[in-house]
Write a structure and sequence with these properties.
Elements lengths: L8 E5 L4 H11 L3 E6 L12 E2 L2 E2 H6 L3 E6 L4 H11 L4 E4 L5 H5 L3 H7 L4 E6 L14 H7 L20 H24 L4 E5 H6 L3 H10 L16 E5 L4 E5 L3 H11 L14 H6 L1 H12 L4 H11 L3 E3 L3 H6 L1 H5 L3 E6 L3 E6 L23 H7 L4 H10 L2 E2 L6
Parallel strand pairs: 1-2, 1-6, 2-5, 6-7, 7-8
Antiparallel strand pairs: 3-4, 5-14, 9-10, 10-11, 12-13
Amino acid sequence: MPLPLEGMRVLDLTNVMAGPYCAMVLGDLGAEVVKVESPEGDGTRKFEPQVNGESYCFAVLNRNKKSIVVDMKSPEGREAILRIAARSDIVIENFRPGVVKKLGIDYESIRKVKPDIIYASMSGFGQTGPYGKKGGFDIIAQGMSGIMMMTGHPGGRPAKVGIAMNDIACGVTTLYGILGAMIGKLRHGSGQYLETSLLEAGLAWSIWEFGAYFGGGELPTATGTRHRRSAPYQAFRSQDGYVTIGASGDKLWKIFCEQVVGQPQWLQDPRFARNPLRVKNADALQELIESILTTKPTAHWVEKLDAAGVPGGPVYTYDQTLADPHVLHRQMVYDIEHPRIGPMKTLGLPLKSTGDLTKIRKPAPLHGQHTREVLQEVGYAASDVSALLERGVVMETKVAA
């Protein structure tokens, strides 16, 4: 059974994180992704750690792609991009707004050679508005979307989320936009232009905070690991670390008190009689719970929580996560062979399915590994490609035999 996007070509004009993540998942879904890089290469090719001269971080983010190197500022380079676009189904880009128009590879230019193209743009703040020309990175978007002020511990400095949240949110938002546009094209026959930004994509994930602000004027502030609506629902200190507990509903709270910590008298305490009261008295609740939990290690409490059916788990360091038997069973650490790095690990597929939906088919490409192959596929003669290589319009890297 073929993968759902098999036979479709994506022209990937993106770099760093948001765009490459979106393109990677399209590749996982079966699309042929042609990643266009400048002669300098995607910025993340320089990221450490390097193994045999190749960035491990780049390799993890750019599987299931081909790489071609094109000087897009040259007329011949622009012509090459247009010829590839004419045989593509999807174009994605994350240049600063206005750049693709200057290069002559914007939506209107590409639509002339491929009328039903689906063209997606990602940027810091969107293509319009007061900040439409402003560049942006994940950290800027986290700050301006309010996320940094609601992350961290009360009274502390603003904190960014530990991962590039707005970048990934932008990649995921663009991904579902592209898939929606593809469904629309299948039904109605026409492509379309779509765009989103790091700011909007991250802001769109603040659902409950939005509701609380407009429903009650509440400004979300940093709460550490606590939930703003539920308690106990946080990480608590144990004898040797931390354990997360989600026992906010009245039924789970009763089971937690009686079967996990053996403190049925807490059920009679008026401060904790209902979830809103437990949220209001979260400091006192934490002090009581930790007075019990710090007497035993995390593993003890996880076993008790599991036995009682109360959601809970250990707070891992990242190396512990990647070595967890469940994570390994679910194949989230996947072995692959890279042409220069050699045997390496890549993140596994988070979607499991009964049919063929996603697949890790090939490792990340070398810089310009597929330049000659792709150009010849779109009609360039071998001699023409050689001439472009000689003039520096395109570049290639050959895989050692």
